[in-house]
Structure formats: C-alpha cells, structure tokens
Write a structure and sequence with these properties.
Blueprint: H1 11-19, H2 32-44, E1 60-63, E2 69-73, E3 78-87, E4 93-105, E5 110-122, E6 124-128, E7 131-150, E8 153-154, E9 158-170, E10 173-186, E11 191-198, E12 201-202
Antiparallel strand pairs: 1-2, 3-4, 4-5, 5-7, 6-7, 7-8, 7-9, 9-10, 10-11, 11-12
Helix pairs in contact: 1-2
Length: 203
C-alpha cells in the first residue's frame, strides 16, 4: 500500500541502499547490512501522516497497490506548513519541517500536492550490529516530493528527491554520508526507480 506519507518519508533511502550490490558495503566503516538497517530506521523516524503535515481530518488519501484511491477529500487550495519533532530509538531527535502545497477537488476525487521539507538529525541514535550509531545533520537532508491523483487514481510519475548530508559516529569509527537521490513510482507499471548516489555509491 502506498500511503499519504509517501510525500515526506525517506523511502528513497531504503530503496537506494538496498540497490547497492557491493557486498563490502558502504565505505568508511558502515557495512551493507548496517546501511540497510540504518536506512530503514531513518525511514521509520521520517514517516508522517496527513495530520502531521497540517492537513487535518478533512484530508485523506488511501491508495492501494493497483493505484486506485479509496477516498479523497481535501480543501482547495492546500497550503500547509509543518514542523514535527520525533524521538530516535536510542536517544536524540529528528526534526522534519516543510510545506505542502497544491489543490484538491472533492467532486472529481483529484489531488495534486508537492511537499518540500528538511530532515535534521540531532544526536539521533540507532542500534546496529556493531553498536549504537549516532547521526547528526550536515546540516540536513532536503526532500521534494510530488503526488498526483486524477479521478481517484494515481496519475503519471510520482516523484521524490533527497539531497543533503549527515555525519555518523559510533565507538571507534565516524564519517560523513552524502545523499543525492531521485526516485519515482509509475502507477501504470507499478515500478519504482531510484537513481543517484548514497554515501559515495552510485545507485
């Protein structure tokens, strides 16, 4: 199921790291397994719902794997700013701040939204196979996501970009990870495509 949180979550990070085929893993001391886990953990602390984005109870979009929307109800036009602070699993926090703009049509069940946001980590800590790993924004990861629903179904490419950097550290090791990813979902073929670089690796 593709949820409304597609707009602001870091799913591209998970897909990008999973796409890395080198068994030696991401450079500078993060193994491939650790990178996969870290991406999933970062994704979990990035997922936001419609109420988080300030759209309130009057807005709902539920899209299943076939690309059909069960319900769309939204004010027209849409322009909402949000700042959300979430606690990380082993301490620290992440702040996701941004703005969602677009238009919605209740009659035609159509919706066009763009969310521009940043993810800023402050001593955000996660368990890994080799101990607790802490990340800090360098200064952050910027996200730009677009979604388009026409007549109750996803229409055209749904796109997202992640660009930025974070620093990571754990006992005996530290480094910097640059992120520059572009991802898209094609509802016609149910295909997700991710291109770009993550921690120096080409996806």
């Amino acid at each position: 199921m593709i949820k409304q949180s597609y707009l602001v979550c870091s799913a591209g990070l998970v897909l990008a790291i999973a796409a890395c085929s080198d068994p030696t893993g991401v450079p500078t001391g993060i193994s491939q397994a650790d990178a996969n886990q870290l991406a999933a953990d970062m994704d979990a602390t990035s997922t936001l719902g419609t109420t988080d984005m300030g759209l309130g109870a009057s807005f709902s979009v539920t899209v299943d794997g076939s690309g059909s929307a069960a319900s769309v109800s939204a004010p027209v036009p849409i322009d909402n700013q949000f700042t959300i602070t979430k606690q990380c699993p082993k301490g620290g926090q992440v702040v996701i701040a941004g703005r969602t703009t677009g238009t919605g049509d209740r009659t035609t069940h159509s919706l066009s939204l763009e969310t521009v946001a940043t993810r800023t980590d402050t001593d955000c800590a996660f368990d890994t196979r080799r101990g607790v790993l802490t990340i800090n924004g360098n200064p952050n990861i910027a996200f730009d996501g677009k979604i388009n629903i026409v007549n109750g179904a996803l229409s055209g490419l749904q796109t997202a970009t992640h660009k930025g950097s974070f620093k990571w550290a754990r006992t005996g090791a530290s480094g910097t990870c640059d992120v520059d990813l572009t991802s898209s979902f094609d509802p016609a073929t149910h295909t997700v495509t991710v291109t770009g670089t993550f921690c120096g690796r080409t996806v």
